[in-house]
Amino acid sequence: MSTQNKNLEAAKKRVKELQGYYRHILIFVLVNGFLLLLQSGVLFKVMPDWFPTETYYFDWVNSNILFWGLILVVHTLVVFRHKFPFLKKWEERQIQKYMQEDEEKWR
Length: 107
What we know:
Number of strands: 0
Helix content: over 70%
């Protein structure tokens, strides 16, 4: 495989990662925005009569946003790993470590 083909494949992979990341952000905003509207009671007027309207029913919304937000932070670190120098240095150290282990194993 030529260098140009490798670069093209790497670029395609990067674009797919970014698409997935932006989709994740969009879903996060839409779902949690809807949940916040439910929690605040704004949407109770349009919900069916059987839908629970007690405020304690929606206490879990804040923890959902917190945990999902932490997952989104991790996703951000993964997608933009090349922009964070501490991750790049760690990656280089790990590569060197595994290369040394393999070299010692084959001696």
